[in-house]
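> tool_call: predict_assembly(chains=two)
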Amino acid sequence: MLLHAALLGLAALGGSLHCLGMCGGMVACVHALCGGGRGRLQGQLLYHGGRLTSYAFLGALAGAGGAFLTRPAPFLHSLLDALAGVGMVIAGLRLAGMLPPLRGLRLAESPGPARLAATLRRGGGPQAAISLGLFNGFIPCPLIAAFLAQAAATGSALGGALTLAILVLGTAPGMLLAGRLVLSCTTRGKALRVVGVALSGLGILSLLHAVGMLPSPLGGHG
Amino acid sequence: MTTSLALPSRRCAHCRLPLPSRPYMVRSDTQCLAFCCAGCAFVYRFTGQLGEAGEAAFWLAKLGLGGFFAMNLMTLSLLLYTDYLAPLEAEILPYLTYASFALATPVMVILGGPFVRHAWREVRHGTCSLESLIALGSVSAYLASAYATFRGSTRIYFDTATMILVLVTLGRFLEATARAKAAAGIANLLELAPQEATVLAEGEERRVPAVTLVVGTRVVVRPGERIAADGVVVEGEGLVDEAALTGEARPVSKRPGDPVLGATINLAGRFILTVTRCGEETVFAQMVRLMEAAQAARGPSRLLADRLAAHFVPGVVALAGLTFLYWLPTGLETAGLTALAVLLVACPCPLGLATPLATWVGLNRAAAAGVLVRSGAALERLAQVRAFCFDKTGTLTHGGLTLQAVRVDPPLDTATFLSLCASVETCSEHALGASLVKAARAKGLPLYPVSECQTHSGLGLEGVVTLPSGAPLRVWVGNTRFLQQQGMALSRQLAQEKVALEAAGLTVVLGAWEGKVRGLMAFGDRVRPEAKAAVAALRQLGLEVWLVSGDQTTAASAVAAEAGIPRVHAALLPADKAALIREAQRLGPVAMVGDGINDAPALASAAVGIAMGSGTDLAKETADVSILGNDLRKLPWLFTLARATRRTIRGNLFWAFFYNTLGLALAAGGVLTPLLAALAMVASSLFVLSNSLRLRRFTYAPA
């Protein structure tokens, strides 16, 4: 499924722009925690290691959840696929700015992460970055929600973990370069639109699969 | 955390508990710190941070490292669990179990180590608590799984072993953050005894650190200043607010020969005192010692979860023993593994989270309402108190002097009288003057321009008021002695009023012009408007309410009657207050609400000490609870919240144990699988989480 993989990659790469908007603060915290030079690289790796861990875990959880549901009742698989598809289309349209954003998900304004980072800062050192990465996984985020839906639809813990791992690996380069990447607001807006469209595309593929027109790309059974 | 002058290193620099005879010392370039135990010293070394904030950072760092391994392990476990449904390739299974073993081991070392050490100490002392149960559960799960791994079996419970530890660490972290938040709110206000004093030596005034004062030093006390040491007035006069130390609301006038106390405030006048007691000898320092003794005597409280674990652990160990004996005929290996299964499923995963999570939500809910609670233990104790004891001055009352009554000789009207007196007082710095001007402004009375203002220290003041007509009028405002000196007399009517008002505990000030006293104003402490409602709400909740005051019986009884408090204990010294609280607690825990330095020993003696926002710093430092703002209605609110939190904790514990008791039956029967253990874990964790979060929506409507 070349188209599928390409869309997933595009959504992930571009998704880092979205991540920067929300999690950019986190990356800045990692910088602040680790100082310069080797410590910074170490901190960044630990942070992304933590992020990969928690997302893969959530993906596996979603995948296992999907497995529990679909093994005894295979017809649910199509339903999950359809749900994932609808979720992704909605999330994609939101990202692209064609739908209003969800209320109550304005995490940038919530004091939680900042307070956590402040506590970590007192703890000091690069090792604290790993906690930040782990915590990152539990920030509610429409992009992650869409991918988790996809993970559940794979119907296997492995498939779910891999789906989310691809997302994290895709977003990592963008976030690693966060400090050097200077994007104007309009550029970011345009890029987000591309991401949104890619995500919606993924959703549509998922929907097509749900109605039996396409095989599943990641699921163990398709 | 600020270390205060009055509490020099007799307490642990980290947790503030009294130090043992041989404390752990940590030396750095700038300071030498004493800690109560190796744990506190370790947290300090790790974070370089004192107090609760450092502790929170410490637990978070542990949580990060442990969580990293545990979460990867969970991902692997999920792969294994789906294997029950769709068999994985047989050749990769051993790798998954070895990888799980490799991931679980660091978690056991990083997170499990302290629990195992703690449990070992308890075993040697023949006690057990939450820590023992957690150590027992996670270690037996780890051992059973390690054994299975090297025997090539997939019956591994590494996820259970590590998740117990991760959740309990999360609980410790939540606890520490909630405490850090409260401590930060309180520590900022900490400023106890005055740090400096003005010394008079060879006719010159010099500012010196208060610690350098010795007996016999002559100290100058200016208006508005906090007195640095106990002494005797030798020159000048002053009006001293001693409420914080004695509980008496009325400012005391001080003349040469009168004793004054350190840490009290000079409201008006300037005087010189000779130091009679300083440093550790002062009445203030004695109060601090009383408070510390009371805190040390109270000792740590046993939490609900600990009491539960103390009963549960021996039972589980016995059941494991019986299981072992029952299965022994089928072989040592089966018997051992089945017994281990009983032990590993006995500890509910969210056990370490059941109390802290509910407490954390409760404490945050309180903080959002402006109530800082120092610890979850304090909240738990508050839910069990049977009585609330209130201090009078500053707690049930405003603490300051406000205008209570005005009397004039006809045909003069009170508005004109107040207007004229307040106009003169605009040029005064006297506390009563400020109160009068405030009262006049509140009544919307006009204030006229004043000239030729002249203050007579300790007596009153005079000034020329320019009336609206442009005519000047010289007005005198002050005490009886002042107006007698000026040769102005009271009418018989006013003299009678004055006697009556003074008998009611009020401070009377006279106003005069054109050779005659025209009227008088009475100032007094006023009961807070919401006091009655708050007391009624507490009584409705089935609590006893007492008034415990250092002031005289008449004044205390009047306030008690107004607030609707049936039981009054008055004219108590600080030590008496503390003794009364201790005596009362024989029948059950009591909460003490106070604000003054004189309340500190009682606050420390009570099961829960509650300091009002306007309270002195020593009171806040001592108290378990600080109420920002002074709304007394927050007391019934807080009590209800404490009860709701306690109910939530109980619910959490019950259901956490419930799911695992089902697991116990399966384990003893030898049919426990890792998946079932994990399901019990998930079910109880989800319940604890959702049940605790319900507290966020806590509301209280007084009946």
